[in-house]
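Protein modeling request. Please complete all fields; requests missing the sequence field cannot be processed.
Requester role: graduate student
Desired output: 3D structure, token encoding
Chains: 1
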Amino acid sequence: MTNQEVKKRIEQLKKTINHYRYAYHVLDKPLISDEALDSLKKELFDLEQQYPEFITPDSPTQRIGGKPLEKFEKVRHEQPMLSFNDAFSEQDMRDWLERLENYLSQSNFKFQVPNEKAFYCELKIDGLAIELVYENGILVQGSTRGDGVFGEDVTQNLKTIEAIPLTLTDTDLTQTNTDGPYKSALGSRKSAISFPSRLIVRGEAFVTKEEFEKVNKERIQKGFKPFANPRNMAAGSVRQLDPKITASRKLDSFQYEIVTDLGLKTHEDKHLFLKELGFKTNPYNKPVNSLEEVFEFRNYWEKNRDKIPYEIDGIVVIINDNKIFEAAGVIGKAPRAAIAYKFSPKEAETVLEDIKVQVGRTGILTPVAVLRPVKVGGTTIRHATLHNYDEIKRLGVKIGDTVIVSRAGDVIPQISKVLKEMRTGKEKEFKMPNQCPICGSKIIKEGVYYKCSNKKCGAAHRRFLRHFTSKPAFDIRGLGPKIIDRFLDEGLISDAADIFELEEGDIKVLERFGEKSAKNIVDEIQSKKTISLEKFIYSLGILQVGEETAHLLAQKFYQSWEIGSFNIRRQSSGIGFFKIKDIIKFFQNLTLEDLQQIPDIGPKVAQSIYDWFHNQKNINFLEKLEKVGVTIESQKSKVKSQKLAGKIFVLTGSLESMPREQVKEKIRELGGDVSESVSKKTDYVVVGSEPGSKYEKAKKLGIKIIDEKEFLKMINF
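Delivered output (717 residues):
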């Protein structure tokens, strides 16, 4: 993007984020999911990091929350309640640490990892941030975050939460005997802590999953709208004018921060001290030594989040050393030395770059969105189903739109919303084609579906794909007929070239496919991108071109290459790698006469080959194969002698001495050729047990027939 386009994208993102944040934080009416909003903020943050000249004071990354409602008294926080910037990947975390280290080095602070207890990891509760003020050990004020500077006084409501102490347990530290039956987790460090008359702590108010379900069930029974999520319910419960309603919701709370300076050295010390004062702290929070341990902590809880009774949407990673944390300061409205490392979202925003039309096994046309790659549910997504043309019209989606992609359960991702406010005017309308992209037949409409009028189209297309992936073509194991049909119906492939662009994320989101099976399929596909020329020609499914004809055509190519009759760069090793464009060039330069001079190729076969390589649709397909990385590998000729030079053999029946493929190889090594059909050009028909119709035809044409014993004698085997 140009600088002007970047600036415009940033302005659109700011406007869109502010719109959805205001609806969520101020009006309590979420219009999109938290995950989708996080995704928008992440794109804005990344763009601003890359183009800091476009950061403005009114950017959503420079402010927190929304303006408090006029329902409660406003409270000014003694220190701003900051929020965290988000990370969604291991690379995001490494980038964060690199930025932090660079900043600290300028301030003569050294921070190195791995190091003992370098980071402190907390579960990120999906609730409402709160601040508690204690004077002489008594709770005197509780407030919400609000806009980070001013919150709302919700003291009476927070007092209804039993997890929040009304009186601190230990207001006189000097009276505690650290060597007695009550031994402090802080050890000898505790005696050095100066307890202030005014103490400010921060934490999270939340509801359990069980309570969330219970309250929503009651609301539905009473005809009220259910809460969208536990966080929304916690916010709505804390901000009730009647404390009895708050009390009825049975909220819970963890505390995780001490704002007042007590001389504590680490963030871990703050948690230990909070617990000793009588605050409920999360028992799963822990210090770790390295980013690798941070990743392990995060990945463990993403997989095991269902085992705890409350919702979490990630972890918070904090530099454990308080001096370093303070020295790092603030960037925008977030601390440099802490970050929210989110779990993989089930929704994210991205750009719809194109809409392709896939033809399924029944001939139904399915529009499929081609997306700018985005992670959803831990998987990189590049495609999303649009179901049918009516769905495109319902969504109002255009090519170039910014969209929200969602994935619920084990289903292929879908576009759930179009952010029309992000449009630039360059978006394009999509129209269904009038002709089938596979066979060119007229498209007809049946109900909500568009379908190819050629009833054989879907079946023929399916047969070709099966041929293309089978042995002895590309031989992609594990990609059987049922899986090919599934990929067609889900819109993942429209032609054989699409197979090589499949990624794990496209497959593992399908029902009955897991990570392992998806990886196995993709690995197998990638391993088959290089193929011999004869197998490649056979894979194309050219009418009347079988294995032997494909071999003969490949030999013709090799001969031309060896004598340098057309310009193809050669490698010095025994193996040549050719680009598909070289193959196209070669076959388009062959005349019908050239083709008929090749043994076993008559007028009809020659015409079929000539027509195929002069059909622009086929050329486009070949060019697409090259674009997705398919290359042709060829070994130098294996001909060892000219003993059978010019002789054409046909094999029929079962041979006992060696497999048929080995017999063919022997004939070719001695300069001979193998044909699949008997004709007047055939020199010998080798007959094994239970010969087929080729034997009868050879007798009629007077072709010399030899048994296996005679053949072995001929080749001195």
